[in-house]
Amino acid sequence: LPSTGSLSSKCMVLCRDTLLSASLALLELLPQPLLWCSDLKRWIQGNLTICGRSAFLFDEMDKMHPGLIDVIIPFLGPSWVVYGTNYRKAIFIFISNAGGEQINNVTLALWRARKDREEISLQDLEPAISKAVFENPQSGFWKSGIINEHLIDFVVPFLPLKHHHVKQCVISELVQQGLEVRPGVVQEVADSIPYFPEEEKLFSSTGCKTVASRISFFF
């Protein structure tokens, strides 16, 4: 699940109106990262026992220590009951920056082959994503049982954004900040974003990450 986020690695569980978070930052620097396995399993099990309809978000999987994520395999498997509790209502979401460059390259190549962004299918991107995310020794999914046992239900690639997508982000940010949506400002902010490739300037190099910080320069 490639993304453009810049957050530190972390795991979140959302249960109704309760938000519990446990930082997993800098796991790759720990001398014995596997010591976290039992803690992670116990933490997930405890929260799912309290609230079966939980959603767990693992951000920046590309920075997670390989093998650590396999501790959650029992919660993803075909069994309806694990450790005496039904966990089939839980949702696990994995986000990774890995594969972003490959997705951009495939998208650009398909555009040059006269296939527009909106016409791109998952099948067009799967080979590039698999190689970058699942076959990368530095990835948290490296030799993971989650992949080998086909426990991921859906892969959602984030395609690069075009100019009109960035303008939508600008409008959304202006509304969120309570500012007037001026067409001229929307255009100027969108135009200030770097685009690639250099000649065609088709796709935003940074997505919409810098939109909020740029608005103040034009308002």
UniProtKB/TrEMBL annotation:
Torsin-1A C-terminal domain location: 161-218
GO molecular function, one term: ATP binding
InterPro entries the record matches: P-loop_NTPase, TOR1A_C, Torsin
Source taxon at top rank: Eukaryota
GO CC list: endoplasmic reticulum lumen; nuclear envelope
Family that this chain belongs to: Belongs to the ClpA/ClpB family. Torsin subfamily.
Protein name according to UniProt: Torsin family 2 member A
Phylogenetic placement of the source organism: Eukaryota, Metazoa, Chordata, Craniata, Vertebrata
